[in-house]
Amino acid sequence: MTAYLIRNVSVVGGAPTDLLIRDGVVAETGAGLTAPDATVLDATGLVALPGLVDLHTHLREPGREDAETVESGSRAAALGGYTAVCAMANTSPVADTAGVVEQVWRLGREAGLVDVQPVGAVTVGLAGERLAELGAMADSAARVRIFSDDGHCVADPKLMRRALEYVKAFDGVVAQHAEEPRLTEGAQMHEGEVSTRLGLTGWPAVAEEAIIARDVLLAEHVGSRLHICHVSTAGSVEVLRHAKARGVKVTAEVTPHHLLLTDEKATTYDPVYKVNPPLRTAADVAALRAALAEGVIDIVATDHAPHAVEDKECEWAYARPGMLGLETALSIALDVLGPQWDLIAERMSRAPARIAGLDSHGLDPAPGVPANLTLVDPAARRIVEPAELASRSRNTPYARMTLPGRIVATFLRGEPTVLDGKAVR
Known about the structure:
Shape: globular
Radius of gyration: 21 Å
Helix content: 25-40%
Number of strands: 19
CATH class of the largest domain: Alpha Beta
Strand content: 15-25%
Structural class: alpha/beta
Distance between the termini: 16 Å
């Protein structure tokens, strides 16, 4: 295993120092380190962060390898500064058995670019009718700890309660896609002034807020862990704030696109802006940004959702919802939060690693710590060119936008997966 000496790097925004990486860990830190056998990287002006962790990634394999594979998605993640991603269960077949989650886990190990941690389905086939094999998935080689029917809400409160009770036995967490389906039937975008003007069926904010309110009460009653996927409304923020003040074991995520884009994008009828939950209003965006900074929302999660051309480049009504996110997430966070490196490390690495139980991730570079880290050039700016993305899909809402920051290098257990902004393999 090659040793690396990273010179003059700012660790999470601190004073410049050197990092020596050897045998998969950070061996030493300090100014003026020497290591004749090490490959030297000049990191002057760069910031070292703990490798990013994404709690919400769609890798599509098995079943939709035309849109993404575990390997292509892992490469996109590494280029985005990630060292671990949690792969959602809405594959084909659904990841609702130990066999399927182990397949995804093994594909991630074979790719070797990031740690791929499968998310297990809550219900069989995501149908919302009976619990999936939660215990078998938890005991499998994949050691599943997060369960979600993402893309579908666990709408039955009795079933949701049973899931929360079940995962408590092994400190698991249920990640809810908060959407009351009876309020969103036929919905095409956020319900509001823009949807009325465009004549599109609206997705009301209360459809999200009502499920979150119900589920925090269930989690409080059971004493189990609940995670809320892709929070998108100001009202949801207030429900979460109240729940956390009561001591409920609830965490929440926000996507980069909900921090930046609004429902006004729908006026173009460009299906790249169709997403679930939908883009909301400027007031919602402001509330989400404030909640992320405050900690009411715990993490940034990409909801990376690649789609094949035929599923996205079509009429708005028929387009599949979802956007790419892995290769641009850190840039959006920098754009929204500014260079608050400790806050970015907390929201994009430490907290998601804690929620997922990924003990070797989310650790600031320090002696003895596994060398899962990323080097960022905060002064760089780049134009997003869809054709240059590693994903098999091209449905990015940031095409030809100029975004701040550039991932220069990513290390997974001391081995580079990205160097000089390019995938090593």
